[in-house]
Amino acid sequence: MSESIPVYKAVLYSLLLDILQTVLRMIPWSTEPGLYAVGNPDSDSPVVLTCNYDLTVRQVARVLAENDVWLVVAPSSGINVWCAAAGGHFGTHQIVTALKTCGIEAQVNHRRVILPQLSATGVLAREVSKRCGWKVRFGPAYATDLPRYLATGQKNDESMRRVHFRAFERMEMAFAWGFPMALVVVILVAPFRSNWCLPLAILIICTALAIFSLYDRIPSKPGITLSAVITGIALACVWAAGGNIGALLTALIFPGILVALLTFDYPGSTPIAGGAHFEERNWHIVVDAERCRGVFSCFEVCPEACFTKQDNPRFIYHSSPDRCIRCGACIVQCSQDALWFEDEQGQRIEPEQIRRYKLNLLGQRTINTEDQFIKPPV
Amino acid sequence: MSTLALMRWLETTPKRYDKGMHLLTLGRVSSLRDRLVDMAVTGPNCQVLEIGCGTGAVTELLSDRGVEVTAIDQNPAMLELARQRLQNKPDTNITFIECTAAEIDSLPEQSYDAIIASLSLSEMSPSERAFVLHQAALRLKPGGRLVVGDEVRPRISWQRFINLILRAPQALLGWLLVGSISHPIPDLAGELCATGLKVVHEDRWLQDTLAVVTAAKNK
Ligand SMILES: C[S@@+](CC[C@H](N)C(=O)[O-])C[C@H]1O[C@@H](n2cnc3c(N)ncnc32)[C@H](O)[C@@H]1O
Ligand code: SF4
Ligand code: SF4
User: Fold this and answer.
1) Residues spanned by the domain of A179
2) Do both A21 and A157 map to the same domain?
3) Among A72, A217, A335, B60, which residue's CB has the most CB atoms within a 10 Å radius?
4) Inter-chain Cβ pairs, chain A and chain B, closer than 8 A
5) Torsion of CA A310, A313, A314, A318, to 10 degrees
6) pLDDT, mean over chain B
7) What average pLDDT is seen over chain A?
């Protein structure tokens, strides 16, 4: 192994940095793109590629500590895989850039690279191979499954493909939102009422925790229900503490605003809810029976396991449309252009538009507003 | 990161890019572009390669001089604006290619009189930049010029200090206005020399933070 390649060691266990980057994850913390060695890789070792969001790079290096692999960090503007891929910051060009310029080609005698599955909505696998000769395989959705994936002959089973939003992730997200908000509020309030700071910060963090743990479990209008509940709690606390009219009024308005702010982008912050801001157009996935050849790349990359395979004749069913978050990964990867988004009036967004301009409907892509110069055919 | 407001905002950056850049550089970006083109176009019938053409501001200046331009960029939304900007001009000889800068290694060697990179090298990592500059040097004809205009680190220590303090707010502003974070190039002239070219000219603006460096290949 060449001397000049930095070795990524598990020494980088720095819990403090993890916490800091989790609570301030709105800031793009970036690692310098390039080639890193994890363990003691040689010319046959697997090549794993990830984004240059610092927290992710450290996580990947950490879970792989017991393996010998090459880690290629590609430029994604310091944004995490999922958001960068959907937003056009982590796509075919960034992958090609990393593979060609980081020096990996001189280190290995194969040309196979493992990408995070959640990059599938941005990275066009066959285009990468055409442009630089590397064969892309989408690995597990979560870095923690990488050792198992490598140990089991690089096969993704369904549990490795599906995204989830477990208690710990909800907590992380709650702090990612709650902490900066609390910080801003405390800075604004401190000069006038320093004794309000701590209670307000606690209220904000608790609200965020409540929203991220309950949001998808409350039927109908969780924003309003939660606002009411939290406002009630806040009022009760202030009243019990013997607060005056002013304090009671603050307790009445403040939590409502908070909940509104926090729920505003809830779907965009979770991997399990998508497209909340597209309800009015109801875009959905359509499979063209004529074109589908049963290649099953759509099946392989869907993070919500929406598809069911049929083997004879080979065909795919979009069998769980209710779970679909409209990330577009299936459309991007289908070599037959057999998938697209269609709305109730039968209007389509063509696969090519989605590939080129990342016109997926994940979260809130504005595809039918006036101010966007790229418009889908209407 | 996937906040609704920020995503929407960044999504529309290509449209706001030109105004944003003007604001960020306090208008100096125009002098930078003019100088770039002056240094690159040395005669009629020049063949020029532009790396990271963005919305095509430099491409337009080049085409006004009547030279033949190959312009590449990796951002399809930016390229689309560049195409729109130049589509109504008569007699242009421009080829746009959507690709990453590292892919210039598939273009023929010794085939350009000038290669221009305006504000794009500072968006690359050091290893990518080294690769791209090296490949660019190979694509120049003998006597050809590599002309780079970009953000650089000031040479004098007090200016460097001020630059350091202003860095964080500037980076934030840049991210919001033009949707990208650049890293001022520590030693642009040095990196050009490392490719075997000879630095023949250097200009600086804005407290030494913007530079145009011209390097030439031996005849
Ligand atoms: C700040 S803009 C400059 C645009 C234009 N040259 C000007 O002077 O206004 C930088 C451009 O470089 C492009 N760019 C950055 N890195 C690139 C890369 N590795 N390959 C190709 N284009 C790149 C970006 O897409 C963006 O359009
Ligand atoms: S829709 Fe496309 S990717 Fe999916 S099975 Fe059919 S041909 Fe393959
Ligand atoms: S758009 Fe829907 S069906 Fe397609 S990959 Fe994403 S979640 Fe699965």
Assistant:
1) 167-266
2) yes
3) A72
4) 101
5) -50
6) 87
7) 82
CATH for B7-216, options being 3.90.1170.20, 3.40.50.2000, 3.40.50.150, 3.30.420.40: 3.40.50.150
A178-221 per-position pLDDT tens digit: 888 888 888 887 888 788 788 778 888 888 888 788 777 765 55
Q: CB–CB of A339/A302 below 8 Å?
A: no
Nearest-Cα distance to chain B for A373, in Å, is 8
Residues of A in contact with B105 (CB under 8 A): 100
Residues A330, A292, single domain; the answer is: yes
Does A313 sit behind a cis peptide bond, omega within 30 degrees of 0 on the bond before it? yes
Tens of pLDDT, residues A306-318: 999 988 888 898 9
Please tell me whether the overall predicted TM-score, pTM, comes out greater than 0.80 for this model: yes
How far apart are the C-alpha atoms of A261 and A254, rounded to whole Å? 11
CB contact (8 A) between residue B77 and residue A33: no
Cβ contact B2–A94 (<8 Å): no
Cβ separation A268–B3 shorter than 8 A: yes
Give the model's confidence band at A35: pLDDT under 50 very low, under 70 low, under 90 confident, else very high: very high
DSSP assignment of A82-103 equals: HHHHHHTSSSHHHHHHHHHHSS
Nearest to B77 among A34, A357, A364 (CB): A357
- Show the tokens assigned to A348: 């389509």
- Residue A1 included in any domain: no
Q: Tell me, yes or no, whether A38 and A153 share the same domain.
A: yes
pLDDT at A8: 61
Residue A299 alpha carbon, nearest atom of ligand 2: 4
Pairwise pLDDT comparison (B20 vs B189), residue with the higher score: B189
User: The domain spanning residue A85 has which CATH number?
Assistant: 3.40.50.11600
Any ligand 1 atom below 6 A from CB of B54: yes
- Classify residue A378: in a domain, yes or no: no
Residues of B in contact with A34 (CB under 8 A): 125, 127
Structure tokens of B40? 């690159």
Residue A271 in any domain: the answer is no
Q: What is the pLDDT of residues A62-98, one digit of tens each?
A: 899 899 999 999 999 888 898 889 888 899 999 999 9
**CB neighbours of B135 closer than 8 A, spacing ≥ 6?**
B102, B104, B105
CATH of the domain at A333: 3.30.70.20
For a ligand 1 pocket test, name from B10, B49, B74, B115 the mutation site with the most ligand atoms within 8 angstroms of its C-beta: B74
Which tokens is A185 given? 């509020």
Number of compact structural domains in chain A? 3
